[in-house]
Amino acid sequence: MDTRIGWNFDSSQHATFNPLRPIAVHRSKTVPWPTHSKTNSPFRRSRARFLNENRIIGGPAINMRIFHRLFVLRAGVIALILIVLWAIAIGPEPPARIIISPDELVRAVTIQRDSLVDLCLMEGVDPNGRDAQGRTPLLIATSQQDWKTAHKLLDAGAAVDLGDKNGFTPAMAAAMHADLEMFGLLLTRSTNLQPEKPCADGQDLLSFALDGGDPEIIEAVEQRLPILSGWTTSTRRALSRALQAGKNDEIRLLLSKHSAPPTPEGRSQRNYADARGRSGPSRLFADSD
User: Which of 21, 120, 153, 276 is geometrically suited to a Cys-Cys bond with 158, CB 3.0 to 4.6 A?
Assistant: First the structure.
């Protein structure tokens, strides 16, 4: 065995006992792989290069740069927020909220400015304001046949039974213009309907309904009449109209609303004995001599 030390055998089955010699390697120089080695190596025969340690950037240096950038970014955001708060603090106060008066709503309905009407209603303006004549926005809208605006005012809580200085009400306007839908809506929301109460010119709700000519509106008004002590101009007109049309049910309804039958001037008391169901309109005005 002693004689074998330092020898190289050609066979790979025999171990070599060549002592390892230290190889002086300079930094950043290439070390060739020994080509005369007979042992098998798990690595390919390539050249290995050692990196210069001075060129390696350590991890702590990178972390410090990231930390510095985040610190600057956060400091900038905080400074910006402080500047905004300072500007708000020393800036002028915001203007006070403009309060829209009910007169503006009355004017908007009068000139039919839908956008201004919507703005007033959105701001919660009182829908029951009045103009110089005492007209409410609802009365103005129904008088102008602006049914769309009238619906908006009703939804906003407009009072139905408020009339102007002459006693003219929205229900009278709807009856005069023969709008059955609006008239029915006003009747359902009315809390103090007085169909027998006349205006300053002597006309009542039945008079305006007769002027409009809608039979359903006329019948609805007649049904809501209270018991009257005497015949008025409107009830006489309604009775004459019912007689001409031969409407016995309407005639009986009008007679039931009065304590006594009508007595035209220059004639005696009329005989209404058969008027309540036993005779037709032809015998309603038979003279009783």
Answer: 153
Backbone angles phi, psi at 270, to 5 degrees: -80, 155
Q: Cα–Cα distance between 60 and 63 in angstroms, integer?
A: 5
Q: Across all residues in the chain, what is the average pLDDT? A: 76
Distances (CA, A) of 276 to 88, 219, 248, 273, 284: 83, 18, 9, 7, 9
Query: Low-confidence residues of the chain, pLDDT below 50?
Result: 1-2, 9, 13, 265-283, 285-289
d(CA 199, CA 163): 9
Q: Both tokens of residue 283?
A: 């015998």
User: Taking a C-beta distance cutoff of 8 angstroms, is the pair 239, 261 a contact?
Assistant: no
- What is the pTM for the complete model shown? 0.60
Tally of helices (H runs) and strands (E runs) in the chain: 11, 4
Segment 176-199, tens digit of pLDDT:
999 999 999 999 998 888 899 999
Task: Note whether 226 and 257 are within 8 A (CB).
Answer: yes
Q: Across-strand partners of 258? A: 228
Predicted confidence (pLDDT) per residue in 263-287, tens digit: 654 343 444 444 444 444 444 544 4
Could you read off the pLDDT of 37-46 as tens digits, one per residue? 555 555 555 5
- Residue 251 CA to residue 240 CA, distance in Å, equals 9
Q: What is the token pair recorded at 193?
A: 């309907």
Return the domain boundaries, the chain. Answer: 191-263
8 Å CB contact between 189 and 170 = no
Residue 110 identity (one-letter amino acid)? T
Name the helix (H) or strand (E) containing 181: helix 180-189
